[in-house]
Design a protein that fits this description.
Blueprint (H helix, E strand, L loop, with lengths): L2 H11 L4 H9 L2 H8 L10 E4 L9 H18 L6 E6 L5 H14 L3 E4 L6 H11 L3 E5 L8 E8 L7 H12 L12 H7 L2 E3 L2 H12 L15 E4 L6 H10 L5 E3 L25 H9 L4 E5 L6 E6 L5 E4 L1 H18 L8 E5 L5 H8 L3 E5 L3 H13 L6 E6 L3 E3 L9 H16 L5 H12 L2 E9 L2 H15 L5 E2 L2 E8 L13 E5 L3 E7 L5 E9 L3 H20 L6 E2 L1
Parallel strand pairs: 2-3, 2-4, 3-6, 7-8, 7-9, 12-13, 12-14
Antiparallel strand pairs: 1-5, 4-5, 9-10, 10-11, 14-15, 16-21, 16-22, 17-18, 18-19, 19-20, 20-21
């Protein structure tokens, strides 16, 4: 793409938007190149990028073009159906505007748009698609990214994020469009009046809440729920659904973090609203100390992820990783199902290939089959659908990813922060009745199965130069790497060729001696390479020392081949 030519065209065609016209006029040359060197890539995660003017940015024009591409795809593939698409959005800057932009494009193409009248979490969108019988769905969110970002997640009729094939087909439709000339749209008020756009009723949310509450595994068992729980929605969409669900399930001592309570896309107290990282939890920990909280939970802006902190016996607060929370939930669900004779025949747990291998050890202990899938909850959702197609949906009991994403039921096809928050609180109360906290229970699992250390390191590559650096790093590691951190590489698995029936993916897994593994994966939604390190079979001190050696060696190799702009 001739970025300068396209920039000048935007200066002419996008001038009706005063804010965008001003931004375009103030761009410096390197900013122009970064904003126009390419189009935002539409993949299985939809679109995600920095908000602003340009083809490589999230704005009303790129959102409209993506929506036109999705509309074309739906019309081509479902010509005999009365088409409809459900839309939701979170608290991010311009999320509400982008949701209406998408709705207007769908309506202009003869596709009914069902739109939530207020921000609602990702799992609610997944549920609404299925409940309303829609052919697709759109969630306007950039998940846990900083405030400068927004995104556009596309869903299929099953409420699952779209597959690689669907993404490729939609991307092809988008590629053939002129961003200014080929987009159909209609005024929002006119479409609403005609019924081409319809607000989603409260009945859909009510049905969702009922399904969430069904995920309890107490099965009539009474426990004391009198613990003090600190909750932060991180200025996202989780406040109403999480507090309502917990309140209705008997958790009355719930204190919200006031500064992070209400929706605010600027995330003023939390620049990186990701409950996986400590910085996002600092204010919540302060509240926990102030109010003598027993448990801290936080959801990300679109409320599909949950991070937790637990007070230890000394009164300090420890944050659990997504892997640690996941194994605790999985073990709790299995234990309760076995205790109450509620374990189905041939039960199944589904996890991603970068999620802790300890989960598989726990599964084996309970006679649960493990299915490993590529990273992305859509692959977990896909497996649930395949089970249901064989009338075996009841076999599924849990799915999770290391990135704080969990799902215990089949009512949605994406990770559910609302349902996970409920189960975490329930699990905490259950063990509290035994005078145990979740750290105690985690350590019990390590005593039973051996110590597992699983860490994640993210390396950010910004701009066009960063894109080239990411390619260089992955190409280097695809070469012959004899050892990492002084440990011999036994085997390198390159998932780009499609291993074990899985779709092709730009993922490398190095199996090392000493029960260690290293996985390199470029993020599908952010300009990052993520590196996952797994160590088992040794004590905590040795494992952490070895993890440090492996990390240093990886960074040394990366530095010699294109160091990223920033390490997080």
């Amino acid at each position: 793409m001739d970025y300068r030519k396209e920039y000048l065209r935007w200066c002419e065609k996008a001038s009706a938007d005063a804010d965008m016209a001003e931004e375009l006029n103030n761009l410096k040359e390197e900013e122009i190149q970064d904003a126009f060197f390419s189009h935002l890539t539409f993949g299985t995660g939809g679109l995600r990028g920095i908000i602003g003017a340009g083809t490589n940015r999230m704005n009303q024009y790129t959102v409209a073009m993506a929506s036109q591409g999705l509309a074309n795809y739906v019309i081509k593939n479902f010509p005999d159906n009365k088409s409809s698409i459900a839309i939701s959005y979170d608290s991010r800057i311009k999320s509400s505007t982008f949701s209406k932009t998408a709705a207007c494009v769908f309506a202009a193409n003869g596709i009914k748009a069902f739109l939530f009248p207020q921000l609602m979490p990702t799992p609610c969108l997944s549920f609404a698609i299925r409940y309303l019988g829609c052919l697709a769905g759109v969630m306007i969110t950039a998940s846990h990214n900083p405030s400068a970002y927004n995104g556009y997640k596309a869903y299929d009729a099953d409420g699952c994020q779209i597959t690689s094939k669907a993404a490729a087909d939609i991307s092809a439709e988008i590629t053939g469009l002129d961003i200014f000339a080929d987009i159909k749209t209609i005024e929002f008020a006119k479409a609403l009046e005609k019924g081409a756009i319809q607000y989603i009723s409260d009945a859909v949310c009510e049905a969702f809440f009922q399904e969430v509450k069904k995920q309890s595994v107490l099965f009539g068992e009474k426990i004391n729920k009198d613990q003090t729980i600190i909750y932060s929605p991180l200025n996202g969409a989780g406040l109403m659904p999480v507090t309502r669900t917990l309140g209705e399930m008997g958790y009355r001592r719930l204190i919200t973090v006031k500064e992070q309570e209400h929706p605010d896309g600027n995330f003023p107290t939390c620049p990186y609203p990701n409950p996986e990282i400590r910085d996002a939890m600092v204010l919540g920990i302060e509240y926990a100390r102030k109010f003598n909280g027993d448990l801290l939970i936080a959801t990300d802006p679109d409320c599909d992820r949950v991070g937790i902190g637990v007070r230890d016996h000394s009164g300090e607060y420890t944050l659990l990783s997504g892997n640690e929370t996941g194994i605790l939930l999985f073990d709790y669900i299995c234990r309760q199902r076995v205790t109450h004779n509620r374990m189905p025949s041939d039960p199944i747990m589904i996890k991603s290939i970068v999620t802790t291998e300890l989960a598989e050890k726990i599964a084996d202990n309970y006679g649960v089959k493990t299915i490993n899938v590529l990273t992305g909850f859509k692959y977990i959702g896909e497996q649930i659908r395949l089970l249901e197609e064989k009338n075996e949906g009841e076999r599924y009991i849990f799915g999770f990813e290391e990135s704080c994403g969990y799902l215990s039921g089949s009512y949605v096809r994406d990770k559910d922060g609302v349902g996970a928050a409920l189960l975490i609180c329930e699990m905490f109360s259950y063990y509290a009745a035994q005078e145990k906290n979740l750290l105690d229970k985690r350590n019990e699992l390590y005593e039973q199965y051996g110590y597992y250390l699983d860490t994640l390191h993210s390396y950010t590559f910004e701009g066009f130069s960063g894109f080239l650096k990411m390619q260089s790093v992955m190409n280097f590691f695809r070469g012959n790497i004899p050892s990492v951190g002084g440990i011999r590489v036994k085997r390198c698995l390159d998932y780009s060729v499609g291993l074990w029936g899985l779709p092709s993916a730009n993922v490398l897994k190095f199996q090392l001696e000493n029960n260690c593994s290293v996985v390199l994966r470029p993020s599908g939604t952010e300009p990052k390479i993520k590196i996952y390190i797994g160590i088992s079979g040794m004590d905590r001190e040795r494992a952490r020392a070895l993890e440090g050696d492996i990390t240093k060696d990886i960074e040394k190799m990366m530095q010699s081949n294109s160091m990223p702009n920033k390490l997080i």
